[in-house]
Amino acid sequence: MALFGRRRKRTLVVGLDGVPHSLITRLAAAGTMPNVARLVDLGSLARMKVTLPEISAVSWPSFMTGTNPGTHGIYGFVDPKPGSYDIRFPNFRDLGAPTIWDKLGEKKKRSVVLNQPSTYPAREIPGVLVSGFVAISLPKAVYPRRALADLEKLDYRIDIDTARAREDHDYLMEDLAATLESRRRAVDHFWANEDWDYFQVVVTGTDRLMHYIWSAIDDPSHAYHDATLDYYRSVDTFIGDLYDRFTRESGRAEPGEGFFMLSDHGFCGIEQEVRVNRWLVENGFLSFETDAPRSIEEIAPNAKAFAVAPARIFLNRRGRFPKGRVDDASARAIMDEVEAGLSELTHEGRPVIEHVFERDEVYSGPRIDGAPDLVPVGHHGFDLKDTVREAEVFGRTNLTGMHTWDDAFFWSRREQAPDLEITKLADIILEEAV
Q: Mean per-residue pLDDT for 111-139?
C-alpha cells in the first residue's frame, strides 16, 4: 500500500505512441488539445529524431535504456536467427542494457510502469511493470504477480483488437475509447495503492488510430473526422488530469518540474508502400530458389542482399548466413551499388528514398554484430516494406498512415537542444528523477 502523507520528489512520464510533433503542435494550437497547449506555454515541446528503423520495437528500448540498438541489441520486431534466414522475435529478456527504472532502483527508488511496449514478458523491476504491445498474455505481462488480480478486476486491456479494428472502424473508435478508459482505471489504482517515485504510462491507441484512418484527421468530410478529433480530446483530458494530479502531489518546487511527455516516432500519410525485396530482385541483388517465394528462407545461393522487416538490408555474407556468397572484398562495392540504386528510385517523378544509412553511421556498441548493413529511410509518404510475395515494387494495402523517424516529440519544462534524439531522454529524465 502507498505510504500516505510521505512527501518526496516524484517523476511522471507520459508516452503517446506514434504522435508526431507536427500534429500535436497543430492540435494544441487549434484548441483540440487545450491541456497540451497549456504545457506548450509552460515548457518546451521539442521535435525529436528516433533510432532506426523507426518502429516501436526499436524506439522504446532506445528510450528506456538511453542507448542505440548496437548496445541494447533490439533491431526490429523480428531479427534473423544467428546463422540462419529464419526469423525470431526478440523480447524483453534480450534487452542488453539497464532501463531507467533499473537505474532508479539502484538509488532505492520505486517505479510504476504501465503499458510500456517492448517489455514482454514482464520481468522483475523495483516496483510494478505492466507490459504493453506486443504482450500476448496478461498473466505474463505483469510483475509482481500480485498485481494481476487487481488488473483483472479492473477489466484491464493491453491493446485494442487490431485485426478487427483495422477492418471495422466503428469498432475501432469504440475499442479505442474503452482501452483508454481501462488505462485510466489502472493509473488511478496504482497511483493510489503503490509507493512510487517514478510513474510512467503509455497510450498506444494513438498509433492504431493513425495507421488505420490517418486521412480522417485533416479531412472534415471524412466519416470519422469528428470521432478522430474526439479521441484526441480524450487523450488530452487524460494528460491534463495526470498533470494536475501530479502537480498537486509531486513535491516539486516549480510547475512542470519532473513531468515529461514523448512519442516514440512520428507519423504521416502513406502515398505508396515500397517493397524493398522486390526492388532488390529487379535490380539483380536478390533471387530465390522458387518462382513464388513465401519467405527469405527460400533465398538462392547467388543472392547478394535481402531485406528484413521493415526494410533493413543485410548482405548475404559468407560466414554469417548459410548460403552466403558475399566476402569482405566485394561487400563495399555491393553496398555502393545498392545505395546508388535506391537513391535514384522514383515514383511518378518523386524521389522515394531520403537516405540510405550504413551500419556504422547509426549503430555503435558491443552488440553491433546483429546490425543490418544498410538502413534505407523513405521520404514521407513512402512506407518501406520487406514482403517477398508481391510482384511489384509499389503498391497499397488498407493502411493509411506510416511511421517517420524525424518528427517525434518530447515535452519537458526545460528547453532542449535542437538536435534532440530519443537516446538522450533517459539521462534528461534521470537528472530530474534522482
A: 97
Q: Is the sign of the CA dihedral 213, 217, 221, 227 positive or negative?
A: positive
Task: State the residue range of the domain holding 295.
Answer: 272-395
In three-state secondary structure terms, 403 is strand
The answer to whether 61 and 423 have CB atoms below 8 angstroms apart is no
Task: Return the closest-CA partner of residue 92 out of 142, 154, 41, 46.
Answer: 142
Using pLDDT thresholds of 50, 70 and 90, give the confidence band for residue 434.
Answer: confident
- The answer to whether the beta carbons of residues 19 and 261 sit under 8 Å apart is no
Instruction: List, in sequence order, every residue forming a beta bridge with 14; answer none if it has no partner.
Output: 201, 261
Q: Mind listing the pLDDT tens digit for each residue in 227-245?
A: 999 999 999 999 999 999 9
Residue 3 located in a structural domain: no
**CA dist., res. 143 & res. 54, Å (int):** 28
**Is residue 335 located within the same domain as residue 221?**
no
Residue 138, domain member (yes or no): yes
Residues 180 and 221 in one domain: yes
**Exposed, middle or buried, 110 (CB in 10 Å: 0-12/13-18/19+)?**
middle
HSE on the CB side for 346, CA within 13 Å? 5
**228 C-beta neighbours (distance < 10 Å), count:** 24
Buried b (16+ CB within 10 A) or exposed e, 119-138: bbbbeebbbbbbbbbebeeb
CATH no. for residue 380? Answer: 3.30.1360
One domain for residues 230 and 84: yes
305 and 187 together in one domain: no
Q: What confidence tens digit (pLDDT) does each residue in 246-288 have?
A: 999 888 878 899 999 999 999 999 999 999 999 999 999 999 9
pLDDT at 7: 57
Is 20 within 8 Å of 404 (Cβ atoms)? yes
φ/ψ of residue 11, rounded to 5: -135, 140
229, 360: one domain: no
How crowded is residue 333: how many other Cβ atoms within 10 Å of its Cβ? 11
Amino acid at 257: E
Same domain, 263 and 352: no
